[in-house]
Design goal:
Serine Threonine Protein Phosphatase 5, Tetratricopeptide repeat, single chain, mainly alpha
């Protein structure tokens, strides 16, 4: 814990010194300090690998996302980031192992996610897991919770698709053939 505080203080001092250099007109030194400050701040955030994993997940490059997630040591993450780590891991493993994916998704909820739309996305993924296990009742409960949490409507279309899949699985199966 003491090392983390020291790292934060060093990064803050670096940013403050960079601002001082800019205000004094020392542009060359200020630009160099800006680059150093960026590195120090990113080292404190520790979420750079999570960001890369998320970006690869969004681009449907699952193998790359898994590589980035495998580089992360959960003990090095801030407590608030561990939920997002399990959310990403659950999302990536959904294609291969629904039981493992469900476990990671539930763990992400128990560890906590900051944004309601992130919680809604987890509930939506859990609905897919429940539906695959033929537990339509629990899947619909997850859909309702996802709707409640998606106040900004960011997942509206995804929720409709999963809900249609749960209500009428034959239509989805016909579309796959």
């Amino acid at each position: 814990m003491l090392i983390r505080i020291f790292k934060i203080l060093v990064a803050a001092a670096s940013v403050a010194y960079t601002v001082l250099l800019y205000t004094q007109g020392s542009w060359g030194a200020a630009i160099g300090m800006t680059l150093l400050s960026i590195v120090l701040v990113l080292a404190n955030l520790r979420s750079v690998r999570l960001v890369f994993a998320f970006a690869n997940l969004r681009m449907q490059r699952m193998e790359e996302a898994v590589k980035w997630l495998n580089r992360i040591q959960t003990s090095h993450l801030w407590p608030g980031q561990r939920g997002y780590y399990h959310f990403l891991l659950g999302s990536v493993t959904m294609q291969n192992n629904l039981n493992e994916a469900e476990s990671h998704l539930r763990k992400s909820l128990s560890l906590g996610l900051k944004q309601d739309h992130d919680k809604a996305a987890v509930k939506l993924n859990l609905a897919v897991c429940m539906s695959a296990k033929q537990d339509r009742k629990k899947a619909m409960v997850m859909i309702q919770e996802a709707k409640r949490l998606d106040t900004k409507g960011m997942l509206k279309n995804d929720i409709k698709q999963v809900e249609a899949m749960i209500k009428n699985p034959r239509v989805v199966q016909r579309g796959r053939r």
